[in-house]
Amino acid sequence: MNGRRGAVLMACFAIVVGIAQTGAVGEYIRETRHQAAEARTAEARTDDPAQDPLYKQLVEKREQTRIQPVDAVVDRVWKAIPGYNGLEIDVDATYKQAKAAGSSAPIAYVYRQIPPKVSLDDLGAQPIYRGNPNKPMVGLMINVAWGNEFIVPMLDILDEEKVKATFFFDGSWLKKNPDLAKEIQKRGHELENHAYTHPNMSQLSEYRATMEISKTQKLLKESLGVDNKWFAPPSGDFNQQTVRIAASLGLKTVLWTVDTVDWMNPSPESIVNKISRKVEAGSLILMHPTSSSSQSLRGMIRVIKNKGLMPGTVSQTLSPERVLPRSG
Known about the structure:
By secondary structure, the chain is α/β, with parallel strands linked by helices.
């Protein structure tokens, strides 16, 4: 009896299933399944930013506005010229930020830098006279071997103008003036190597030239904790041996693009006028702690800024890091 009842129930179930697959009921079931499948597909698309029109818009904008990087090169006149990073919209970061801000907010673009394929490190032992002409920065080089009375006034001006510079220390000066060197460091400036006794480097033996550079390098580390990166030959006197020795010690040899010649005591006005005529993107400006440079420093900085350039350190100017646009 129980077996017969089970068979009847199974037959009834089969009839119901058959009816459900035909007619209005079947159509209803198929439509419900179709809608569910479409909902799952839409949900998957929502999870994939690449399907979002906004994301596609950002990708297109990135391709239209990308700035390619510039490789470092050895120029016939200027020798080693550093590279300069390219720039493009970071689509993922911009998309995420835009979605969080909502559709009514303007898009605030996030950028990422594209490094060049060739950097300064790839060029070997070469002197450097200037930064990349595409980078709107100017490096301030202050070589220190004398002129203590003008250092603090120059530091005060740099503070007031919110500018950092690179001070190249003669090692024998640093040995005698550690407190003044620490004051320069306290103000946030870059401290680098100007040999030890201010010699003409091209006239030295390999041993003596090595000692001149390495002794100051060691003193910078021991007295100030500075990891030296740049070497400025005294009086701009050097030869290929000098550059090679500096490179063997992990230093790049840097000279200048524009010389204030402040040791000849020119008028402050003439220095400012000279900078106004000659400064351009990538320039390295040489000065010393003299009366002339102390009195003209503020004018130099303002001339540089008025030309749409940013005064800064040697490292900042020679770095491939791009000067980024403001977001938005």
